[in-house]
Structures are given as C-alpha cells and as structure tokens.
Recover the amino acids of this structure.
C-alpha cells in the first residue's frame, strides 16, 4: 500500500514540528514548506494528497496559494490558522478549502480530521460513469465534464454533487450534507453549505439563477432532480 502524501505549509517552527511529527507517526509521507513559493513548488512537484496550509505566510496569503493549487490539483486543502472569524473561514472555502482548523489545535483531533477527509475523498459510487444531458460524471476518476470539457470542481463540490446524485430526486437536509460531506467533526454550518451549493451551481448549471439540477426545497434542504 502506498502511503498518502501530506504537504505542510507553515512558517512557525514549533507548529511545523508538532504537525510533522503527528502526521509522520501516523505513517503518512510528510513534505514541508515555510513560504508561498516553497509551498507552490512542493505542490507541483510532490503532488500531495492533502495540504495543511497556514493563511499568513512570510511572502503572501495562503488563500492565493490555495487558489493557484486548485487550478492544477484536487488535493484536499485544510487551512490551519489562528483566525476564528466565520467570514475568514468562508473565504477559505470559496477558494477551494475542504476544512478549516483553528490554532491552538489538539493533535489527535487534527489527525482525525485528516483521516476523515482522505477517507471521504476515496469513497466511490457503484456506477462509475453517469450521463445526464450535457453532463458526464466519472465517479472513479472523480471528474465532471460539461459539454465535453472537464470542470474545475473543488473537492467538497465534487463530494456534494456525488452525494446529491447518489440520492437523486430525494430531498437532502443541510444536516445530512454536513454529516456526509464534511463529517460531524467538520467546521461548517448552513451558510458554508449554501456557499458551496452556489459555486457548484455556477459551474454545472446553464442558468445558475434558475437551476435545473440542484434545486432548493425551502425549509427542508436540497434535491438533485433528473429522470433516471
């Protein structure tokens, strides 16, 4: 079995030491970077499965690095930062983050979140390819195509879409989405789910303001509508 690769982008030496030891002791391969430049180089070269990313780095903003990484990779991105503000967290999710952990953190909790995110990413659906009008969903490849062009979906957007399709024509509550996409330990709420649904609609719907596929059922949740 090939060990999964985790990249840590953190400029605090003490925090880097805690993170790297915690992850290495769990038998993951660890790569380290302390700047935006080093983080980008490592992300491109090492192709990590998961990235732990600080927001405030010496040479730039972690949000910008996450945005760049999302253009070339669907690696899981978890922000690890001191900022507790909800708007700050939502900004992270909007640029493609999958989870958000605030400092100080408990190493065991951090490791549990890493393992949960990696496990959800590898979950597959029975039918590997699904054609829905101008959409083609490759569940095994974890890719979605629209009009023959691969869409740049963030990991959480893919998981949301796959879960809704798996339960097509059924109303799924926000709590169900949180439990199955983020997990009970995930840092999220109804506003975060709404942000992800909105960005997903902009990518897969022809008219996002009048969605054909992902419909809101007011007071209950969301529903992916199509005739099987």
């Amino acid at each position: 079995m090939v060990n999964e690769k985790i990249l840590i982008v953190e400029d605090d030496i003490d925090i880097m030491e805690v993170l790297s030891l915690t992850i290495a002791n769990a038998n993951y391969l660890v790569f380290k970077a302390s700047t935006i430049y080093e983080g980008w180089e490592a992300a491109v070269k090492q192709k990590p499965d998961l990235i732990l990313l600080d927001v405030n780095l010496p040479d730039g903003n972690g949000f910008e690095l996450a945005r760049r990484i999302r253009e070339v990779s669907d690696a899981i991105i978890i922000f690890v930062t001191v900022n507790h503000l909800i708007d700050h967290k939502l900004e992270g999710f909007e640029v493609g983050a999958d989870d958000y952990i605030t400092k100080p953190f408990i190493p065991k909790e951090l490791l549990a979140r890493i393992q949960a995110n990696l496990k959800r990413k590898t979950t597959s659906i029975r039918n590997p390819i699904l054609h829905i009008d101008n959409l083609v969903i490759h569940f095994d490849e974890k890719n979605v195509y629209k009009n023959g062009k691969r869409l740049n979906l963030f990991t959480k957007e893919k998981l949301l879409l796959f879960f809704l399709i798996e339960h097509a024509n059924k109303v799924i509550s926000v709590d169900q989405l949180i439990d199955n996409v983020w997990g009970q330990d995930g840092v999220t709420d109804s506003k975060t789910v709404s942000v992800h649904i909105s960005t997903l609609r902009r990518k897969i719907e022809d008219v996002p303001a009048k969605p054909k596929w992902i419909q809101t059922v007011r007071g209950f949740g969301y529903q992916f509508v199509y005739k099987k």
In short: Residues 5-121 form a domain with the Rossmann fold fold (CATH 3.40.50.2300). The radius of gyration is 18 Å.
